[in-house]
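Bench notes, afternoon.
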Amino acid sequence: MSTGLFGWELLYGSVERDIRNNEDILVCLTHLVLVSNGFRCIGLGESKNIDGTESKSEALPRGWNEHYAIRYVYQGRLYNFRATPLDDGVMLNLIRVDERSVSLVQLNSRSVASRSGTLDDMIPDNKNIIDMIKKQLIEKVVTSKKSKDMSCQTESQSSTATQSASRLLEDRVTPAARFNPYRPGLSATEPVGRFDPAGVGRNDLDPFAGIDPLRVGPRIVPPGGGGMLFQPPGPSFGGGGHRGLPPGAVPPGARFDPFRPPDAPDRAIPRVPNRPDNDELPPPGYDDMFM
C-alpha cells in the first residue's frame, strides 16, 4: 500500500455541494484514504456479489451520503464500506466479503474544524486520523485471516519439528550416559530413576565408558568401566600393584582386563613342601601295557 495522500482538493471540489455535516467530510477523507491505497469504487449498496464487469472509479458515486453504503474492490476482492452516524461522530465499517471479516474505527465529528480551505485547515489532526484509518480499518481486513491461520499453523508445526529434532539429537548425545541404566557417582547396584531394559549391555559396547579420549585436561571417569575393561577403585591402585602382576605393571588410573575379580580374596593355596601337585601325578593307567 502507498503511504502518500494526494487529491483532497480535487475530491472535495467534486462533492462540496453534497456536504451537509462534519460526518460527510470524514467519510470523504476515508474514501480518499481507500483510493490512495489501491481501492476502487464500483457503486453503492451492500450487495455481496461481483461479476468483474463493474466500472471502477476513484470518485464518489452520486448519492454516496444518503445511506453511507459504498462498494469497493481491491485486488479482485469485494469490500463493502458502511458509515453509521453517532451523536458526536461516525462509526466506519469495512467488510471483506469473501472471508466475512470486519474492521471498524470511530471518528469524532469535532475533529473537523472547518468546511473550507486546505485539508490541514479543515481537519487539523488529519495525519493521525489517516493513520488510524489505515491501521484499524484497512489493514485488519486486507490481511487474509486464512493467511494468518496458515502462518500460525506453519509456525506451530515448525516449532513441533524443532522440538522433536532437539529431542532426537539429545537422545543421540553421550550414548553411554544416555543408555546406561546406572549413572556416574553411584554404585552399580543403585539405579537412577526408571531402569531401562534397552540399556543392558550398552556399557560394554563403549570402550571409553563415556569419556572423550581427545579431551585435554582432567577427566571425570564414571564407575563401571566399559568395553569389558576394569575401572580401578582409586588413583593409588596402580602404584600398589596387583596380584598376578609385577609392581608397576599397571600405571596409576589405568583400566585393564583383570585376571580375576579385583575385590575377590586370594584363593591361592600355598603348597606344602614336597607335596606334588596335580600336574606331577601320572595319568590313570599309564603303566597298563594293554592300553
